[in-house]
Amino acid sequence: MVSLVLLVLLLSCLQSPILRTGTWQLLNCSPAWDSNPTWNDLISFAWKDAAQHRMLVIVNYAPHASQGYVTMLDRDLAGKFYSLKDLMSSTVYERSGDSLVSGLYFDLPAWSYHVFELQPQTTL
User: Fold this and answer.
1) Which domain holds residue 91?
2) Count of CB atoms situated within 10 Å of the CB of 100
3) Distance between CA 64 and CA 51 in Å, rounded?
4) How far is C-alpha 2 from the geometric centre of its chain's CA atoms?
5) pLDDT, tens digit, for every residue of 46-105?
6) What is the pTM of this model?
């Protein structure tokens, strides 16, 4: 049953217009700390469309937990605040745009992922 729920969520994500009309970017992942090579097991990418809607995906494609920082390339995110709503779960994070461009820390369990819709916050 869980697999069916995940499939429905994934199909819903794939219907997002940003995936058809947006610009795709491979993002930079970097070490969480010295002597921790698990960041190499993370892959992250983003989409942005003409209306400045954004989606952020990060995947741990390893059979162990992985930690690292993901850096978004759009400097215009700085100085603002965002809700990162995971479209594959009920997870929502509130983060500053500054942390998105300087490096957002992730600690992902084995084979896990996030598909975030970035929603600008008008108030704190």
Assistant:
1) 2-120
2) 25
3) 37
4) 22
5) 999 988 889 999 999 999 999 999 999 888 899 999 999 998 888 999 999 999 999 999
6) 0.86
Residue entry with tokens 């869980």: 2
- Pick the closest to residue 28 from 44, 13, 39, 41 (CA basis): 44
Structural domains counted in the chain: 1
Task: Encode pLDDT of 89-98 as tens digits.
Answer: 889 999 999 9
Q: What does the alpha-carbon distance between residue 44 and residue 8 come to, in Å, rounded to a whole number?
A: 22
Q: Report the CATH number that the domain containing residue 45 is assigned in CATH.
A: 2.60.40.1180
Q: Are 97 and 82 in contact (CB under 8 A)?
A: yes
pLDDT attached to residue 1: 47
Q: Which of helix, strand or coil describes residue 122?
A: coil
What lies within 8 Å, CB to CB, of 111 at 6+ separation is 60, 61, 62, 63
